[in-house]
Amino acid sequence: MEILNYAFMQRALLAAVLVGITAPAVGIYLVQRRQALMGDGIGHVAMTGVGLGFLLSTSPVWMATAVAVAGAVIMELIRWYGRTRGDIALAMLFYGGMAGGVMFINLAPGGSNANLSSYLFGSLSTVSEDDVAAICLLAAFVVLVTVGLRRQLFAVSQDEEFARVTGLPVRVLNLLTAVTAAITVTVAMRVVGLLLVSALMVVPVAAAQQLTRGFAATFAIAVAIGVGVTLGGTVTSYYQDVPPGATIVLLTIGVFVVLTVLATPLARRRARALARGGAACTADVPGARGTSDEVKV
Amino acid sequence: MGDTTTKTTGEPVISLRGVTAELGARPVLRGIDLTVGAGEVVALLGANGSGKSTAVRSVIGQVPVTGGEIEIFGTPRRRFRDWARVGYVPQRTTAAGGVPATVTEVVSSGRLSRTRFGVLRKADRQAVRDALEQVGLADRAKDSVNALSGGQHQRVLIARALVSEPDLLIMDEPMAGVDLASQEVLAATLRAQVGHGTSVLLVLHELGPLEPLIDRAVVLRDGCVLHDGPPPEAVGQHALPGHDHVHPHDADAAPVRTGLLT
């Protein structure tokens, strides 16, 4: 394992594992709320933060975190208040964020779009010790929220109206989800890049769903897939000299395709088992729930 | 109509006075009065667009109210915090979460009104099993809710409401799109709840198989109360002689329906 002898690879692998855990852990709630593309939007907004970081000569990671969190909070507020025009407002936020990033980085002394590209598509080999420290801290927060509040976040994401009637602070939990997603985007930024972040939030969850019937199982398998592909992609990029972000995302999609193919017979077997169960109780044609059943008394 | 109950506690469980609400600029409720006494089963009837769903949703704070007063268990709704006493069954929508969830997971979320941010204890898990037992879905506990029929899904939503052991059930069209077998299970579940003294406010399109359980019907039209009293005259097979109207809770408690209504 000579790969572990290099300090930069140790940092890269650590960052990769943390991203593999956090991205699907937050992504599952976004997918559950049918906001799979929210991570992508936050990624766009975070670009302004990276640009500002260069312009002000501060850490791009912390600046991106601050801007992404602000952007996520604004998105959540738009979701509450901007019912009809919400999507237009979100579009402006996303593209404004992207344009802002390009503008700021070009205004920065000696800055050019080349600096931006390591944040757009990830650049594991340039992850510094400070970056790793920031990533560890942020990842700990994300895990604390997504695991510690899983029941509450599940309820809010599954049925927001019902969650309100249970007395849960739904708005606070929604904001927390948005903030956590924003933080995850900046955690993953150095590994897969802002433009590919959303893939790691969504695709492992979609892949895990092919095998599972429940939320807890989906969560566990999605995180396992996330860790597997980020580690696999990082190691591959070391030996083959391919970009890690793209490798990780393509690997994830590969896992999705394989699991989908494998799951088809599984789903068929489950359907058949269900049909048998139905036949035993009703002595009816399996699966035949005709329109006449719907007639009210 | 504030005196519709003569029951012990005196406090009505739900009380709406002159409630108005708008959706957009359109008035949906034009000042309705509605009371549900302790242990009473009240059906809210009316055509589509009459405001019955909005009325129910105003009680649980899902619709902003433009005027009037709403009280739950004698507390103004804005200050009401004891949500574990309220079991809510929303209108079943075809839209489900984007991630599979088991029956147990969905029903457990109803227990959050009691556990809040605490951990799920043994008693909580037992309550989930009991609720599933009540709606006859104990054998489906580990199945995905997406694999259930419409009627079974509705039973899951009712179990989710029952799991907090509420004193008041609020149900929005619980019988809509539900197959016959599930309708019977739902009616039996509701009968058992009412037998334990649970108060019920339910939105119905028609009385149907729940008719024998209903103490009082409030009919809305265009956001106004049109009728408040005994359920409208039964027609069809419910009117046939020999059709038994059983009110199980009358046996162990004073009858809710007094002469005041007739």
Main sheet record of chain A? none
Average per-residue pLDDT of chain B, rounded, comes to 82
Structural class of chain A: mainly alpha
Tell me the name of the CATH class of chain B: Alpha Beta
Tell me the distance between the termini of chain A: 72 Å
* The CATH architecture of chain B: 3-Layer(aba) Sandwich
Give unreliable regions of chain A as ranges. 279-286, 293-297
> Any guess at the CATH architecture of one domain in chain A?
Orthogonal Bundle
Helix proportion of chain A:
over 70%
The CATH topology name of one domain in chain A reads: ABC transporter involved in vitamin B12 uptake, BtuC
Distance between the termini of chain B: 12 Å
Question: Mean pLDDT of chain A, nearest integer?
Answer: 86
Share of β-strand residues of chain B:
15-25%
Strand order of the main beta sheet of chain B, please?
6-7-8-3-9-10
Class of one domain in chain A in CATH?
Mainly Alpha
- The value of Rg of chain A in angstroms is 22 Å
Sequence of secondary-structure elements of chain A: HHHHHHHHHHHH
Describe the structure.
Chain B: This is ABC transporter. Chain B: GO terms for molecular function: ATP binding; ATP hydrolysis activity. Chain B: It comes from Streptomyces longispororuber. The complex is a heterodimer of chains A (297) and B (262). Chain A is globular. In chain A, helix 2 (38-55) packs antiparallel against helix 10 (197-209). Chain A is built from twelve helices and no strands. Chain A has helices at residues 7-32, 38-55, 60-81, 86-107, 113-121, 129-148, 150-158, 160-165, 170-192, 197-209, 215-240, 244-282. With 297 residues, chain A is an all-alpha fold. Chain A has a domain at 2-198: Orthogonal Bundle (ABC transporter involved in vitamin B12 uptake, BtuC). Chain B has 262 residues and is α/β, with parallel strands linked by helices. Chain B has a single domain, classed as Rossmann fold (3-Layer(aba) Sandwich), CATH 3.40.50.300. Helices cover 23% and strands 24% of the residues of chain B. Chain B contains six helices and ten strands; from the N terminus they run E-E-E-H-E-E-E-H-H-H-H-E-H-E-E-E. A six-stranded mixed sheet of chain B has the order 6-7-8-3-9-10, with helices on both faces. Chain B has a four-stranded antiparallel sheet with strand order 2-1-4-5. In chain B, helix 4 crosses helix 5 (150-162) and helix 5 runs parallel beside helix 6 (180-195). Chain B is globular and about 45 Å long. Mean pLDDT of chain B is 82; it is low at 1-9 and 237-262.
